[in-house]
């Protein structure tokens, strides 16, 4: 997988300290739906290089982070900008939906 794996400390630094515009997929290795979604994100990543980050959190290794956002099930793709939560996409997603959400986040005022 080419998405950087984040632990809770790295998540805090990236999202809240640096305020990076990014998405974080909350997933687990054994999830079949996740295995279909991650390649979509990997395909989109080069298109937004330098403008929007793509990251991965393993929910089995980072349970507290997963619970902090009251997430139910995986995969969950959370979007952030300037340290603020911008919404999420859940379950099997289409590339167009993810791309549209990224564009919305990049163009938002927050």
UniProtKB/TrEMBL annotation:
Signal peptide: none annotated. GO terms for molecular function: protein-disulfide reductase activity. Pfam families: Thioredoxin. SUPFAM superfamilies: Thioredoxin-like. The keyword Protein transport does not apply. It comes from the Bacteria. The keyword Acetylation does not apply. Gene3D superfamilies: Glutaredoxin (3.40.30.10). This is Thioredoxin domain-containing protein. It comes from Desulfosporosinus youngiae DSM 17734.
């Amino acid at each position: 997988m080419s998405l950087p794996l984040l632990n809770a400390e790295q998540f805090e630094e990236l999202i809240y300290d640096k305020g990076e515009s990014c998405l974080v997929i909350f997933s687990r290795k054994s999830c079949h739906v996740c295995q279909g979604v991650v390649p979509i994100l990997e395909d989109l990543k080069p298109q937004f290089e330098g403008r929007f980050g793509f990251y991965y959190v393993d929910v089995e290794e980072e349970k507290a982070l997963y619970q902090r956002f009251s997430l139910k099930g995986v995969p969950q793709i959370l979007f952030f900008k300037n340290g603020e939560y911008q919404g999420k996409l859940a379950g099997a997603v289409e590339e167009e939906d993810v791309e549209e959400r990224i564009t919305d986040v990049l163009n938002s005022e927050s």
